[in-house]
Amino acid sequence: MRTTSTIATKLVYAGLWLLLAVTASIGVTLWVTWQLEGGAAAVNEAGRLRMQVWRLDAARGASLPAAQRADLVAEFEASLRRLRLGDPQRPLAVPWTPSIRERFSAVETTWNRQRHLWYPEGGLDPSGAANAFGAAASLVAEIDAWVLDIEAELARLTRILNLLQFVMIGLAVTGAVFMLYTGQRYVMQPLTRLARAMTDLQKGAFGTRVVATSNDEFGQLAVGFNQMAATLQALYGQLEARVAEKTRELESKRANLQALYEMSEFLSDAESLQELSQGFVQRLRERMGADSVVLRWADETLHGYLLLAEDQAPREIVASEQVLPCGLCECGRAHIDQRTRVIPLQRAETAMAVNCANLGLRTLVSVPVRLQHRVMGEINLFYRQTVALHDGERELLDALAGQLANAVQRLRAQALEREAAVAQERTFLARELHDSIAQSLAFLKIQVQLLQSALRRGDIGGAQANVAELETGLQESLADVRELLLHFRTRAHGGDIVTALQETATKFQHQTGLPAQVETHGNAVDLPPDVQIQVLHVVQEALSNVRKHAQARQVVVQVYKGAPWRFVVRDDGQGFSAQAPVGATHVGLRIMHERAATIGGRLHVWSTPGQGTVVELTVPADAAVRDERAPPSTRMAETVADPKVQNDETDSPTVGG
To answer: How far is Cα 574 from Cα 610, in angstroms, rounded to an integer?
Structure first.
């Protein structure tokens, strides 16, 4: 098992060894230097010994007093004692070696033997002068020999010091080289490898790896770098795959949106069910790459599916499956499964007239056509190979099926609107005929019966009177027919209700000879065209009542533009009272009320016998035609009555006059 040795540990060990070597070298150098310094002091002190010997010899010859000679002897012995013991204050230390110690012993022995010559107890011996001189020379010779040994030892120590200095230089150079080598091997080389690998990684070479040569910090860093590079390589590979996948998804969604937009545009422009269904299956087959497409529509009881449209479908399927019973095969099951299914087709002998697999078809995709939760039909896509749908294609098929259901519902709604419009126009026409021509014809029928009775009785005068009544009734019927034709042909002109009312008033004046004028007050945005038509019919009905019943001398139509709009028809005719009998068959006023209710307006009628009649229609500025099929209770306009004026929901024979 490899132990982890950190760079810090290695550097500490190397520094400690280098410090130990340097410390040892410095210690030895200091010791040698101390020896040299002490030896030099010893040499100097030995020189003093020689000088002291000659002073003793000179003192003996000069016959100095004994006290002075005793001081010189004591000084000489003190020097010997210093040399023997050393003096740390100077410093003074003899580099003792066996040879130096032997020579020093010889010096002391010679001194002890000759001491009496320099300081005799009984006085100086004149006869011993020659012997004393020889003794001094021999003592100095011993001292010189001892000094030579010291100098030899000092020379040796100097050589050692020089050697140590060279060793120190070598250690410094070796330490520097060692530190450079250590830094290069354990720091610079790993850093260089990591920097090179990082550069390669930045260039996109995610396969770059760093060789871990040790278990130190850089080895751990290399392992971490390799793990990071491997992770980045895996993430980059996954990122490329994800980007490619997302790109495909976005492209698929874009294509689906384009298909939805194009299909929506087509379905919104289609004007018939055949055009819509046939165009839908053709575009769906091209978009999905199917070999054929069949659109089936379910009947109300969900007993069978009608083949509504097909594109490239086999003739056998078209011929035998115009009406497909529910649940007979995989087709015709949309109301059961109510989901998009991918069905593999298998060859089999069945009792069915057509087997799709025997026709070379391998896959069926069944898509239900739903409107909210109600199944209206299904789409069958046939493939001659095995296919699988991903989620985007399923969503696209469901969305296209929903668009188809909405488009078919739109066509149905438009058909119902047209039917309602025709029924509404027929209702209005029936009301107009009932209010005018039907009553005139009933009156003519009665006059014919009276004429027949008068002729049977031979009453010529009564017959002539009946003929005159018939002629009057025919003239009124012709006038009613002309008025109806005028009403049916009248339209608003470019959104201008005032112009249409002026034309209506001009025609009314031409037909009746009564002065009629239109007065306009205020300004506002024009009413919608469909609202203007209803307003025009209400005003025409009011003018018709004036013509029939009012016996007026003039008529004024006033238009007040604003919020709300007000249309007022005034005449100066005979008027009527609230107690006047109501004609059971006259529905003019009720028709006017209903027309006002369809546009959210209110109809008010004020009349007083002998003072004329006022009919006022109030229309909000944002009025729109309402549903004519609403109950009369919700469509009937509210009316306001004056205490002196009749205001009833039914009509009177004298309304308008």
So the answer is: 4
